[in-house]
Structure formats: C-alpha cells, structure tokens
Amino acid sequence: xxxxxxxxPHTFRVTRADLVRYAGASGDFNPIHxxxxxxxxxxxxxxxxxGMYTMALAAQAVLDWAGDPAAVVEYGxxxxxxxxxxxxxEGTEVTVSAVVKGFTxxxxxxxxxxxxxxxxxVLGQARAVVRVG
Amino acid sequence: MSLDPSFVxxxxxxxxxxxxxxxxxxxxxxxxxxxxxxHTDPDAARALGHPDxxxxxxxxxxxxxxxxxxxxxxxxxxxxxxxxxxxxxxFSYTRPVYAGDRLTCVCSVEDISSRGGHDFVTTRTEVATVxxxxxxxxxxxxxxxxxx
Lengths: 133, 148
Hints:
The structure holds two protein chains of two kinds. By secondary structure, chain A is of the alpha+beta class. Helices cover about 25% and strands about 35% of the residues of chain A. Chain A has a single domain, classed as Thiol Ester Dehydrase, Chain A, CATH 3.10.129. Chain A is built from three helices and six strands, in the order βαααβββββ. The longest helix of chain A is centred in the middle third of the chain and has 16 residues, at about 50-65. Chain B has three helices and five strands. Chain B has helices spanning about 20-30, 40-45, 60-70; strands at about 20, 85-95, 100-115, 120-130, 135-145.
C-alpha cells in the first residue's frame, strides 16, 4: 500500500427498512429517521438516514479493504448533507471511496474518505487511521 | 439564545456500567452490514487474537448517545433538543470494544461556541471498563440551530 492508493468504491443501498433496523440496533429512535410527518415538520425534505448509519457504512467500506474488523484506530466525520431515503423499494444509494493520504509514526494508514449520495457529498472531513499489515 | 460558555470543562458523573453482549454486537453488526465473522463467532474472533467477538467501530455510540443525555438534558445548560443537529463525530480507540466488556462513560463539555446565530457544543466521552481500563474516547459536536 502506498500514498495515493485508492480503495475501490463501495455502493450501499439504503432503504427505510435499513433505517428502522439501525434505529433498533443503535437505540436512536429520533422520528426524523422514520416519520415523514415529523421530518417535514422540522424542515427536512423527508425521512433522512441517521448520520451515524452513514458513518457506519463508510467504516465498513474501509474495513472490508483492511480485512481486519478491529483495524480502525481513529475515525471522524462531519455530517454535511442529509441522506434522504424515499419510502419505496429502491431507497437511495450511498457510494463510499477512500484514498491513502499518508502514514502515522506507528505505521498506520491515514485515509481520506468520500461518501456521496445523489451528487451530494454527505460526509465532510471524513478521515480514518487504520492499522495495516 | 447563546449557551453559557462557563459549562466548558464541566464533567458529569460516570454512567452505570453497561455490559456489552454478544447478541447486541451481532444485532448492531447486522444493522450496519458488518459481515466479518469476528463480529459474531467467538472462535473466529479468538483466531485473530481477540478475547471475544469484536464490536464494529461506531458501536460505542450505543452507550455514548445515552450518556450524552446528561449534558443535552441538563436544565442548567438549557439545550433545546428539538433544534439539535448532529454536526461532527469522532472516535479514538485505545482498543476495540469486545463482548463481555463492562463499560462506563464519563462525559464532559469540551467546547461551546456561537456562530451565525447557531450554538455549537462539543461533548467528550471517555469510555472505560469498570476496572478503569481506557477503551475509546468519543467526541460529538452538536449544532443547536438558532431561532432565526
């Protein structure tokens, strides 16, 4: 692995059922993640994914590449745009890619992560430090 | 309404211990599409040198979101939760979370600022075992949207 190496993009399909499942698993039952009525009342276009769900998917893309489920040493993101999930069978798609930006003194890889949904960058300053080799 | 910056540095009491269960890790892993067997099969986890099944990296949010309610619901600070949006999130791991861990969270207010009519609160949660072994530090930046 070297600086500039790109991880093959992963595309995740996100449906309402995924949000309900994530709500149950995480304990985050904020109704903006399952009720259009509440989401639109607070000014959103409709139900949006939990930011933490998008963050978790992006981590999976990185971990699949690292091959070790315990490889993440540091991981941070900014939630820049909501992932709007329509109430249909298709839902929406989030595509995650990453590039190796450098290495820490301990030899861990520093990755810059990009997560896109419908042409919008949904995570900003998304960076992970991952144990490699 | 601006939040009182004198809350910066305030630390809240440790939360009651949370025992990480294998089935909770399995449920969370399934929800985020984490399919590695080390999340669900103790033997697969041990073969990689772990004491038990490994939680996915964002799993600590299960504990820290609840722990952070100490700050968000603190009437003295006075955050209007209906105006809160999740701004940033960061995890720094000393080691992974494993099934069988008994964890406690200590939350503090790391930063408060105001910009463009919005308030920003950064919370920091130290997640450690009940025996005092550091596991992960978690930061959440919350945006409290102004009424404008």
